[in-house]
Amino acid sequence: MKALILEQNAKERSLIQHVLEKIGHEAILGVDMEQAWQMIEKGEARFIIADGDADDFKKSNLIGRARVAKIMPVYFLVVTAGEGDQADADDNLHKPLFASELKARIMIGQRFLALGESLSKARQQLENLALYDSLTGLMNRIAFFRSAQGELERARRSSSPLSMIAIDIDRFKSLNATHGVEMGDEVLRIVGQTIREKSRPYDCIGRWTGDEFVIALPGVIGADAEKITERIIKGIDSTSVTLKNDSVIVGVSAGIVSASRISASTEAEPLIEQARQAMMRAKEAGGDQVYLTYI
Q1: Quick check: pTM over 0.70?
Q2: N or C terminus of the chain with fewer C-beta within 10 Å?
Q3: Do 26 and 106 reside in the same domain of the chain?
Q4: Residue 16, class by beta-carbon neighbours within 10 Å (0-12 exposed, 13-18 middle, 19+ buried)?
């Protein structure tokens, strides 16, 4: 662990450095308060041992800035010569410093940071679960809708076109009934993977509902959107899904709605519904094809 020492007294600073290095940590010395803040902000220093009596530390309000910015996890061990504690510090230690007590406080802080990292990772995992479809790994309906709204806003500001694609697996209910739900799930996973592989890296892709997928294509309309969709369909059509000695050939239908200009009244949900209606027209025409419409 890297520890940032903000102690003006040379003797105290030397002791802190010695204790840190003896238990295997790296001590960072010789920075002013603005440099210290930059290191904290960038995540380069997450354990700070500071002289709470120093005027520059008091004026810098490092702890308050870190708390307001919600930079976590950051641990502040404040050392003071007086009896009072700094309320917003994670821990307070009073001078004179003794190596054994300092070591114990550092180890407590280290455990706090480790716990904070674990909690941050757990929180990130929960956020990912809330945003992504567990079967396909694509954005779920809520996350896609939010991302699509963002794409619309960017297209509106830049006066750029946008297309929305809806893709549905042909005869999926029959496939589920004949080959089982497990095969159906494998088909959904493979189709989602193929859509991702055949789309552009920055396209917004989600699983809308059941066996329906949606894609927002910024900067693309008409024939270009149709080419991208046909590339996706061709990739899926050439795929045979096999599970436990059982195989199925998958086909999909797609609908596209293209908007050459995104106005202030253009919303994501009506665009998605229009793409789904176009997709239903493709299915009604026999499936395994694309239907394009303009607005």
Answers
A1: no
A2: C
A3: yes
A4: buried
